[in-house]
């Protein structure tokens, strides 16, 4: 079976994670990258044969099977729609879109095109997260009652000046922590609940709208904190949040049932310790590494992204599969809108 030829849109995360992950996977071959600024540089660094200034130029100038969209959020809709119109399989980064209408249009276009699609929710494949899901599925926690996916970080403290102005601080272009991590967190809570949300409530908060970088003062229009409660019905709720204005670096993925709690905590997904907590016990559980663990030296996300590509390749070859779908992206987009994000 010949390798599927891949074109990547975006030279940031696309160059750091998408390009090396696709190159490492035996089912794919990266032959092109598109970016208005850095395509040629990343192509040279990653030994990608072809470089283009835009998605349309790449689609016209390269024979592709797959397009992987890793550009900033404001570009997802036009690039995905162009790739679907050209009959390509598509993997799209989160957030899926900048509003629900765009997300709905992409889902409908994918159904009409009859191609395989996927969302880059690679944190589903973190071994510790998968272990928490298994504890739910084997009833180790008993009846599930509450899910917690919460992060505290310091990258947007008022005194921090190392993040330069640009689209990331622009709400209209899909910037901010709400779009950077809440799609992942909502998706994880939905997976742990094993169902779609019945209702999502919450808010976005901007504590530090006035910022400074090397060029001087500028204004941020994006949230630096996002806080949500999700109702799944049948007594299951979730607390989902991220706050980038604390001095703590902490991520918690936890489920609480009527028999036990399973609590994973650490600085980030790559360094989580998992504990099972009952009435009279607290045990740290040993978690097997990802089968792609050795590749984390390239980037921490690479092992989980490779597992996502396993599912994406299966969907292309056989249909179906268990990987994240455009429909999952639409569900999360509706949750983002419910807490106040839309353009």
Automatic annotation (TrEMBL):
Residues 129-258 form the GFO/IDH/MocA-like oxidoreductase domain. SUPFAM superfamilies: Glyceraldehyde-3-phosphate dehydrogenase-like, C-terminal domain, NAD(P)-binding Rossmann-fold domains. InterPro entries: Gfo/Idh/MocA-like_OxRdtase_N, Gfo/Idh/MocA_oxidrdct_glycsds, GFO_IDH_MocA-like_dom, NAD(P)-bd_dom_sf. Residues 4-117 form the Gfo/Idh/MocA-like oxidoreductase N-terminal domain. Keywords: Oxidoreductase. One of its GO terms (molecular function) is nucleotide binding. This is Dehydrogenase. It comes from Vulcanimicrobium alpinum.
């Amino acid at each position: 079976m010949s390798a599927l030829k891949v074109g990547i849109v975006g030279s940031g995360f696309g160059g750091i994670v998408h390009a090396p992950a696709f190159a490492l996977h035996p089912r794919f071959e990266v032959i092109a990258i598109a970016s208005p600024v850095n395509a040629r540089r990343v192509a040279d660094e990653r030994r990608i044969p072809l470089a283009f200034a835009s998605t349309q130029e790449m689609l016209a100038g390269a024979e592709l099977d797959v397009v992987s969209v890793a550009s900033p959020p404001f570009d997802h809709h036009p690039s995905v729609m162009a790739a679907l119109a050209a009959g390509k399989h598509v993997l799209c980064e989160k957030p899926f879109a900048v509003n629900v209408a765009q997300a709905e249009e992409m889902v409908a276009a994918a159904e009409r095109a009859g191609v395989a699609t996927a969302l880059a929710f690679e944190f589903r494949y973190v071994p510790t997260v998968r272990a928490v899901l298994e504890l739910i599925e084997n009833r180790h926690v008993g009846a599930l009652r509450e899910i917690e996916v919460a992060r505290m970080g310091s990258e947007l403290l008022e005194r921090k000046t190392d993040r330069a102005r640009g689209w990331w601080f622009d709400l209209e272009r899909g910037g901010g922590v709400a779009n950077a991590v809440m799609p992942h967190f909502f998706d994880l809570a939905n997976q742990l609940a094993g169902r779609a949300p019945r209702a999502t409530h919450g808010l976005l908060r901007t504590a530090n709208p006035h910022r400074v970088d090397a060029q001087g003062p500028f204004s941020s229009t994006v949230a630096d904190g996002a806080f949500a409660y999700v109702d799944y019905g049948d007594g299951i709720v979730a607390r989902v949040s991220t706050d980038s204005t604390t001095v703590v670096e902490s991520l918690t993925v936890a489920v609480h049932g009527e028999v036990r709690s399973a609590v994973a905590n650490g600085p980030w997904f790559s360094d989580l310790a998992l504990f099972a907590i009952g009435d009279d016990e607290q045990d740290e559980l040993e978690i097997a590494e990802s089968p792609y663990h050795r590749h984390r030296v390239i980037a921490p996300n690479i092992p989980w992204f490779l597992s996502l590509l396993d599912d994406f390749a299966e969907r292309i070859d056989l249909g179906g599969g268990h990987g994240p779908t455009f429909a999952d992206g639409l569900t999360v987009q509706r949750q983002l809108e419910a807490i106040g994000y839309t353009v």
